[in-house]
Records
---
Amino acid sequence: MHLAASTQDSDGSVIRSLVLPTFGTMPPVAIEPSHIRAWVARLAGDGDSPSTVRRAHTLVQMALELAVEEGRIPRSPCRRISLPKIEHEEKRFLSASQVADLADAIRPRYRVMVLTGAYTGLRPGELMALRIDRLDILRRQLRVEEPLKTPSSRRTVSFPPFLAEELAEHLATYPGNDGRLFTAPAGGPLNPATWRRRYWYPGVDASVGRPVGSSGSPSSDGHQTDNGWSPSMSETAKSPANTRDFEKWS
């Protein structure tokens, strides 16, 4: 299935990790509503958040509607597809000890990534884009340059002494191969959807647990944040010293 070239760059990881593995080799005429329903159910069962599943479905729907307009298929198979609901919960803050438990529960390669997010207020996308040359361990500062939601997102952030030691040890253990501070196990940039499914959710489940949604069951979406792709990662330590920075995750 061909996806329009005008698709936003920010959707690239969703297309590569969630759409193309299932529909990449299927011609539009071969896609049935049953395929779409089974795919949506599988994504939800794999732990992808409702917002991510809905976005992936929207991208497929856009491509198939284009195929309809071009006369390649009579109608879109994305009609009347039941999608997971996005539940909204109250903001949740973790204590410093809960942050430590979560960091210790996640894969060791990403332990310091969790700590950095908690004690700097960086969003997940900012953490994944953070480059080593924008980290000053001696001055205990890092520079956020991308991705920028607004011009004011470009900023310098300070961090506590213990985190400087953790970051230095992380660099010694995982030096990286492309200039990024936090990379995929084989090197290169992290895929947000894959990272969340393979590492983040298992770490949350094994430590602090997922927030409970309005339905009374654990929410795969954690709680909603302004970064849009990793709501659960907005849970963070609430400390008198850095409460304002920590609340950026909520």
Note: The longest strand covers residues 141-144.
---
Amino acid sequence: MITEEDERPIGVAHRESIGKDSPSTTVEVTTDDVAAGVRAIGVQPGDIVMFHSSLKSMGHVVGGPNAVIDGFLQAVSTEGTVAVPTLWWNGSQDVSDWDYDTSPSYPGLITETFRQRPDSIRSNNPTHSVSAIGKRAAELTADHGKWGLRPCLYGDAAFAEASPWERLYLWNAHYCFLGVDFTYNTQAHHCQCVLLEWALQQAPPEKRGDLEASISRWDTIVEYYRESQSGSGRTVEFLWPGFSFKEMGSTWRVWVLCASVPLATPPSAASAPGIWSTLYWRH
């Protein structure tokens, strides 16, 4: 079932129309309004943008989900690229049923509409696929999980070196949230997996195998969803261990967390209209 990620109101650049017979105010948003809002946070023609979204947060969007998508495309021009998360697996399906051409996207109506557009290209991953439109769409979505696998709850291919999530980081993409907050930051799982991979590499070779074996993997996330959907109330714990390198002869101690932490937010974002926000990856 397609659901919206959030239902809180958002103040994008917009028009307000007040009905003659009603004191209520209707927020009306157009493609041009969306494009203006995207540009206001620093997105330029030729840029690469990934965005999470909630259509309900925007008031009345003239043209519906396609108007939002067209606004982002207008902001980056034909030289840019726009992407959205088109995640399919939510714990209730058999991953063998995954079909990147037909499996629906669950994080909101905008993402499902985006996926179905004829100019959209989707990466091939059942849990964390990305769809993109634009000049570098094919490059962004190519070979998801074909190489550079990383330890991950959702399968080691989800946030591999060969993945859209890695390329968004390497290409310094804008990472935007439209009507949703950082709790919807899927890129945080990429950070998590990169840190976990790095932590394992720092461990002494003789201890690496045992440490990796202690990490929660696919069977744990499947169990988590099964218990959540059953209503049993049983808690499934995720093991993202704290690697105590001091105990292994090193002064480093790294906790691998599942968190949404902005690496750097540009000053311009603070003054952008409404609650538009952007996450800039710098390296």
Note: The first strand starts at residue 15 and ends at 18.
